Each structure stands twice: as structure tokens, then as C-alpha cells.
User: Which sequence fits this backbone?
């Protein structure tokens, strides 16, 4: 069942994590965001699952925008749903950032395969294809 009463606490946690990112408090931000993701993993399979998966993607994007690579989010997204291409994209970007280009290539290829039915102008798919061209 969805749990709307927990929504406010989740939103507060996201805001606190974003504020810590903005203030360049990486340790605090990573702890806050990782705690949120852990709560999402514990609720895997709940009716809120899709929303939680997209929230994890949002958190990864926010962390990247502040040059804070919360590498664990991609792996946790894949634990949550290994068939979600966005998780593979996040894992690939983190691997690329670390310099692990073999892993980045594999994860990008997985994302492209999983998004094979997406609209051809889907922004994330275009990013994946562009990155794949550079990695190959």
C-alpha cells in the first residue's frame, strides 16, 4: 500500500540533502541521501516503488549537478529494479567518472538495450548513445 504519511519525512530528507549539497557538505549530503535510498530499498515492492525509483534518479542527478558523485545510488537503483535503464545510466556515469570505462561501456549498453522502445528523441537515450559512441 502507498504510505502518504511518510511522504513529508521523505520530502524533508530530500530537501536537507539538497541543502547539504548546495552548501558543499558532501559527507552530510551523502549520509542524508544514502539514508533515504536505504529506506526506499526497504520498501521495495510497495505501491510507492515507481515513485521511489524516480526519486532515486532525481537524487543522483542532483548530486551530479553539484559534482558530488554518490556512486552507491546507481547500484542501489539496480538492486531496486535491475530492469530500469535509468539505474544503468547512473551506474555508467559514476563508473565513467571513476575512470572505469569498461564498466561504463557495459552499463551504457545495458541502458540502451532497455530503452530500445523509447522515443528516438528521449533525452536520456540520446545521452546514452552519445556516450556509447565516445566509449567505443
Assistant:
Amino acid at each position: 500500500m502507498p504510505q502518504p504519511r511518510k511522504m513529508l519525512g521523505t520530502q524533508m530528507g530530500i530537501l536537507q540533502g539538497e541543502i547539504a549539497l548546495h552548501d558543499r557538505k558532501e559527507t552530510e549530503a551523502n549520509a542524508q541521501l544514502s539514508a533515504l535510498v536505504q529506506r526506499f530499498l526497504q520498501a521495495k515492492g510497495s505501491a510507492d516503488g515507481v515513485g521511489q525509483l524516480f526519486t532515486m534518479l532525481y537524487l543522483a542527478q542532483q548530486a551530479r549537478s553539484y559534482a558530488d558523485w554518490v556512486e552507491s545510488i546507481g547500484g542501489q537503483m539496480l538492486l531496486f529494479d535491475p530492469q530500469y535503464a535509468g539505474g544503468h545510466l547512473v551506474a555508467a556515469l559514476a563508473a565513467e567518472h571513476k575512470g572505469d570505462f569498461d564498466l561504463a561501456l557495459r552499463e551504457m549498453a545495458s541502458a540502451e538495450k532497455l530503452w530500445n522502445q523509447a522515443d528516438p528523441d528521449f533525452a536520456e537515450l540520446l545521452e546514452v548513445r552519445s556516450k556509447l559512441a565516445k566509449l567505443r
